[in-house]
Each structure stands twice: as structure tokens, then as C-alpha cells.
Design a protein that fits this description.
single chain; 404 residues; mainly alpha
Length: 404
């Protein structure tokens, strides 16, 4: 099992950039030579390149978990390694065709594989997208039936519509095109632009699902000094809701197992302020629940000023550091919220490992979509850089294919 926070340096991927440049230069030289058998060498080289890049990305994914599991890098490493694996399969098929029918398949096919990769990825993953969207809609409908209608409860349905309609639109748009070479180039440019955006969203979605699962299923080592419990709303009588009670119960479970394994007690930090419609703070509600479970008051450190997850982490850290600057910290929240909470913990420069409480089956998917949307609104600079690079790549390939 991979242990979180056991590495002190961030994994670097400069080698991928260097490998990409070297591979591109070799292909350019082979293209200039243009001899019989060159196409097989090019395809074989690209297959080897894909295999090495997939290994690098997966290795970086594992090392990132050891360094900082709550990072956008884990999303990118896993999501885009699947896309490279998809390209690898196409190149393997192309190489087989080039060997079987050398007169039909030429070296230009290798460029076309990359040129058409975003659209091909959309097409071949459409069954997965359809099944995923149907399941998401079913869970959303169940959520509305059990929890009532709210605009936020429609996020899963809206994401499903975006995914399915995007597939249908591109299929119809790209089904047949005619006209001058310039008109076809503009059409392909628009199709590649749409596919690149869609590819980015799909890789992010897959990456976030995997990152969420790793974060939610992780169980920290039994060496913690403090356990932050993130608030999420209370009942009108001041008692925790089932969702909040699940977070406290998970923290209690961890504390009990740590005590059994090592004999070490920890201090609970219930974190959450008082909302406008709440009779007491979320922190006090959790404290009362902890007291009812036999936790002595001296092992409860209240943080009752926060109103967001970011403030949960920031204010809790301040209270913990005032007591023990070298404290080892964990936090308890709901399973779908562990990864994003970890992002906020790292943003306030606090190393803390999360544990996730279960929630109802119909609640988790829509809540996960909310987390996905929330993640898309963060680190906009990095996302613009990556998405912009993808768009630039496909636009450049469009010019290369039509001007060659």
C-alpha cells in the first residue's frame, strides 16, 4: 500500500519534455530520409515513446501520493496517462496494419493518429460516457426524491447532458464535411478545438474520480496528535445531522483504533462556526456529541469561527500550532470531500491526512460532481496553461496536416 506524506520532494516530469523533443527530432530525420521501412520504424518508436511516458506518468502519480496526495498533479498524471494508453493502442494497431499491408499505410498515418486522437478518444469512450451519465442521472433523481429539489441537486444531470450532448454534437458535426481545402481545414480546426476541450474535461473527470477514491479509502498511520472534524450543518435543535454525525463517528473510530494499536490518545478539533439559521455553532454541536460518547472535555479543542472548508483548515491549524508546532494531524470529513479538503489543508501549509465517512449511495455521486465543479474553478492558471497547450497542439497539427 502506498503511504501518503513519506516523500519530501515533489516528483518532476522534465524527462517527458526532453523525451518528447528527442522523439520529435528523430521522427523529423526519418521523415527526411523517407525510405522503405521508415514508417515501421516511426510507429515502433512512437509505441516505445508511449510506453515510457505512461510509465513516467504512473510512477509520478505514485510518487505524488507519497509527497502530497491532495494535489492537482495526481489528477493530471492519472487522467492523461489513460489518454496516452489510448494512443498507444492505436499505434499498435497501425503498426500491425503497416506490416500486413505496407502499400496502403504510410508514415503520414503516424501524424494522423495524433491529429485525430482527441476526436477518436471521444468516440471510443462514448459507451463509458453513456453508462456513466445514465448512472449519474439515476442517482440525481433519487437524490431529489429523498432530499427535495434544489438547483445544486441538478448538477449531476447537467454534467450528464454536457457529456452526452458533446458526444452527439461532435459526431454529427464531424460525420461528413465537403468544400474547398480551406473550408475543410476550418471545419477540422473547429472539431479539434471542441474535442480538445472535451478531452481535457474527460481526463480531469477520470483523474478526479481516481484521486477521490484513493483519498477517501486511505487510512493514516496511528501516530496522530490532533483530529480535525469538518463541520457541515446541524439540525434545528442543535444536534448533528446524519452527515455530520458520520464525520464525528469516523473520527471516533480512528481514535479508538489508534488507542488500541499504540496506546496514544489524540485531541479532537471540531471545526465550524454558527450559521444564520443555527442555534449553536457546528463546533459546539460536535463537542456535545463527543461528550455524549465519553470523550473528556480536555481532549476537545473547539474552533467555532470558520464558515468555509478553507477557514476550517486555517483556523484549526492556528489553534493546533499554538499548542504543538510539530503536531501530526488528521482530519475527518465525508468520503467525497476528503480530496478537496486536503487541497485546502496544503494551501494553508498544513500536512494533514484525511479519512472519509460514508454517505448514502444517491448522495455521493452528486456531491462528487459538486467537488468536481469546485476543483475546476481552482488553480485556473495551471488549467489554462494545460488546456491552452492542448488546444495549441491540435491547431498546429491541423495546419501541418493540411499544409503538408
Amino acid at each position: 500500500m502506498i503511504r501518503f506524506d513519506t516523500r519530501d520532494t515533489k516528483p518532476k516530469l522534465y524527462n517527458i519534455a526532453i523525451l518528447t523533443v528527442i522523439t520529435a527530432l528523430i521522427i523529423m530525420v526519418l521523415a527526411l530520409i523517407d525510405k522503405e521501412g521508415t514508417k515501421i520504424i516511426v510507429s515502433s518508436l512512437l509505441i516505445a515513446y508511449c510506453v515510457v511516458v505512461i510509465y513516467m506518468l504512473q510512477h509520478a502519480f505514485a510518487e505524488q501520493l507519497r509527497y502530497n496526495p491532495y494535489s492537482y498533479n495526481t489528477i493530471y498524471y492519472f487522467g492523461f496517462s489513460l489518454f496516452i494508453a489510448f494512443i498507444l493502442l492505436i499505434y499498435v494497431g497501425l503498426l500491425i496494419d503497416q506490416i500486413r499491408e505496407p502499400d496502403i499505410y504510410n508514415a503520414n498515418q503516424s501524424i494522423l493518429v495524433v491529429y485525430e486522437s482527441a476526436r477518436a478518444f471521444m468516440f471510443y469512450t462514448s459507451p463509458f460516457i453513456l453508462v456513466f451519465s445514465i448512472c449519474l442521472c439515476v442517482s440525481n433523481i433519487s437524490l431529489i426524491r429523498h432530499e427535495g429539489y434544489r438547483p445544486v441537486n441538478l448538477l449531476g444531470i447537467l454534467l450528464s447532458l454536457f457529456l452526452v450532448l458533446g458526444e452527439v454534437f461532435l459526431w454529427r458535426f464531424d460525420y461528413y464535411v465537403s468544400g474547398s481545402q480551406f473550408e475543410v481545414m476550418i471545419h477540422d480546426m473547429a472539431a479539434n478545438l471542441l474535442a480538445a476541450v472535451y478531452l481535457y474535461v474527460e481526463c480531469m473527470l477520470i483523474g478526479i474520480i481516481v484521486a477521490d477514491l484513493f483519498a477517501a479509502r486511505y487510512w493514516p498511520d496511528y501516530d496522530k496528535d490532533f483530529m480535525i472534524i469538518l463541520g457541515c450543518g446541524i439540525r434545528q435543535d442543535g444536534t448533528p445531522t446524519p452527515l455530520l454525525r458520520g464525520r464525528v463517528d469516523k473520527a471516533l473510530e480512528y481514535a479508538r483504533k489508534q488507542k488500541e494499536a499504540t496506546g496514544k490518545d489524540l485531541i479532537f478539533v471540531p471545526s465550524g462556526g454558527q450559521g444564520p439559521n443555527e442555534v449553536i455553532s457546528e463546533s459546539e454541536s460536535m463537542k456535545n456529541y463527543l461528550l455524549s460518547k465519553g470523550i473528556p472535555e480536555e481532549r476537545i479543542l473547539m474552533e467555532d469561527q470558520s464558515t468555509t472548508t478553507f477557514e476550517n483548515m486555517k483556523f484549526s491549524k492556528e489553534k493546533i500550532m499554538a499548542i504543538d508546532p510539530n503536531a501530526k494531524i488528521a482530519y475527518s470529513t465525508t468520503n467525497y470531500h476528503v480530496f478537496r479538503s486536503g487541497l485546502f489543508a496544503r494551501r494553508v501549509k498544513m500536512r494533514a491526512q484525511g479519512i472519509g465517512a460514508r454517505t448514502k449511495w444517491y448522495f455521493w455521486p452528486n456531491a462528487a460532481v459538486r467537488e468536481f465543479v469546485g476543483l475546476l474553478t481552482q488553480h485556473r492558471g495551471k488549467q489554462i496553461l494545460i488546456l491552452g497547450s492542448m488546444i495549441l497542439l491540435y491547431l498546429t497539427l491541423t495546419f501541418v496536416v493540411f499544409m503538408a
